[in-house]
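User: Predict structure, ligand S-adenosyl-L-homocysteine.
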Amino acid sequence: MNNDNNTILGFDVNLICDFFLNTERQGPGSPEVTLKALSFIDNLTDKSLIADLGCGTGGQTMILAQHAPGKITGIDFFPGFIERFKKKEKKAEKLNLQNRVKGIVGSMDDLSFEKNSLDLIWSEGAIYNIGFERGLKEWRNYLKPGGYLAVSESVWFTDQRPAEIHDFWMSAYTEIDTVPNKVAQIQKAGYIPVATFILPENCWIEHYFTPQAKAEEIFRRKHAGSRIVEELITSNHREAELYSKYKAYYGHAFFICKKRILTEKVSE
Ligand code: SAH
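Assistant: Predicted complex:
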């Protein structure tokens, strides 16, 4: 998890999750970007096993289920998100996906998959919870040789940046780094870095920040007069303002990685 107190930027994780129950997504992304990342993955068949870690309410899981063969298990720590996911499973029945997609409550740092069993691990905007390097290392064990890991993660676009945005990120997620440094970590962890691309701005604005207005309304009604809720909303607004002010310095990138098979010991 992010830290010992189960807080993000000082707010109780449960409160944050409750807020994001009412949003379209719980992190930057879009259906188009999910499909773009999927287009780099070429090993899937009807027999494939796929895990979506930190799936949230399952928006991208359902996109995957509609466009990739195989069975998909979405895993999230927060039961409220999985409940919402289950409602989507009902819709999946109509699309004839019911035997191919399911959501379960679980933790990305304690997975119950067999070692070397998964063809693809997906994780949009969630690996930060375990930490990028730790996730790369631990999740690799569950992939078949040649299996894929597709993750999206916050990145710096420049080597230097203004103190205000640097300090904000150091209080939120110290592992944010430049794309070349992340790619080097991928290589070092035993993957081939197959593709990397930066998410377009609409993934932040249209799909992440703008839908929060509706969630704010619902949340204010539910917790009328709560100081902590007002503080959370103010903090979310600050995040959106910082993004519009400093989007030349940071964003979100997708990394598509393939588990490397080493036939001989090499020094790295
Ligand atoms: N993939 C979704 C959600 C991203 S937000 C999207 O892109 O919209 C990050 C998600 O990670 C949240 O749903 C949060 O509940 C989940 N999460 C946090 N810690 C986790 C853990 N230890 N194991 C599994 N999921 C976790």
